[in-house]
Design brief:
By secondary structure, the protein is an alpha/beta fold. It has nine helices and ten strands. The chain has helices at 18-29, 33-40, 82-92, 122-132, 137-153, 171-181, 222-227, 231-242, 268-285, and strands at residues 11-12, 41-50, 53-62, 70-74, 97-101, 117-118, 163-168, 186-192, 215-221, 246-251. A hairpin with a 2-residue loop joins β2 (41-50) and β3.
Length: 286
């Protein structure tokens, strides 16, 4: 999971509205593209069977007839909540079938926290870190296999195309583990301010890189890089040795959580740049 030392003071507002989310992008795009996406995307609450029970999740896909590539979207440490539904809806409007699971379904249905959430609040910190500990390298793999199988079973999914996976915060390592669990099926892996990608020990996500056959985008937060400046170099070396196509980029001036609207660290220009790079990778790799 993400290291607690980078989180103090980080506040997440899980109640961000569709209208507010749409307006966040108007300044850069000139049009309320997300509002349009709401009219062109189907959203469903679904239950996904896993070896440990049923995971509550949200599924999104474009309206109308057709089949599209699938994407598994791992949320950050605060798990499935309205802002990640909005992000998935926006991605679906670009032509993808998107699944966003609740990371902590074994313990509690989403949303797992209510109201504004902050690591500076000891009670919030204790609650969310306890939930995060329920996600292990083993459960990450079994869940990933189940989630990808669920996506492949959807009539809207184009199974001739490979699957994309993206993760935020602790979702970054989960994206790597997803690629390692099914290397022939996963074609693109994206980590946004992922934590622990180059952790010590035999379960380190970076050790999975040689087993995968995907293209990668690793977007690193500025303050994460300052805290561990060697991590990006380890990743670049691992990708080069495995001959895997990858972009590892530090977003200077953008701190942990910068891609998530409602985060205290949200940085709109940097978030839009990251989103554009995400879409470019998926277009090329899926």
């Amino acid at each position: 999971m993400c290291d607690d030392e980078i989180h103090p003071g980080l506040i997440q507002d899980p109640t961000i509205s569709r209208r507010r989310f749409g307006l966040l992008t108007v300044a850069l795009t000139g049009v309320a593209t997300v509002a349009h996406a709401d009219d062109s995307v189907v959203e469903k609450d679904v239950a996904v069977k896993t070896p440990d029970g049923e995971a509550d999740a949200a599924l999104f896909y474009p309206k109308g007839k057709g089949k599209w590539p699938a994407v598994l979207l791992w949320p950050d440490i605060w798990s499935l909540r309205p802002v990640f539904r909005q992000m998935a809806r926006r991605l679906a409007s670009s032509g993808y079938v998107v699944l966003v699971p609740n990371l902590y379904y074994r313990t509690k249905k989403a949303p797992v926290m209510e109201g504004a959430m902050s690591f500076a609040n000891p009670q919030d910190r204790e609650t969310i870190t306890a939930l995060a500990r329920t996600v292990t390298p083993t459960t990450a793999v079994t869940d990933a296999v189940a989630f990808v199988a669920f996506l492949d079973a959807q009539p809207q999914t184009n199974k001739a195309k490979r699957v994309g996976v993206q993760g935020y915060c602790m979702g970054g390592p989960l994206a790597f583990r997803t690629a390692g669990s099914n290397p022939t099926r996963i074609g693109a892996v994206v980590s946004f301010h992922g934590g622990g990608l180059t952790a010590e020990g035999p379960d380190s996500p970076q050790l999975l890189i040689p087993k995968t056959k995907a293209d990668y985008l690793v977007a690193v937060a500025d303050n994460d890089d300052k805290r561990d400046p060697t991590s990006k170099d380890k990743l670049k070396a691992a990708f080069a040795e495995a001959k895997i196509k990858a972009t590892v980029e530090v977003y200077v001036g953008a701190n942990h959580g910068w891609t998530v609207p409602g985060s205290q660290a949200y940085n709109e220009p940097a978030a839009e740049k990251a989103w554009s790079e995400l879409l470019a990778l998926y277009k090329a790799a899926l």
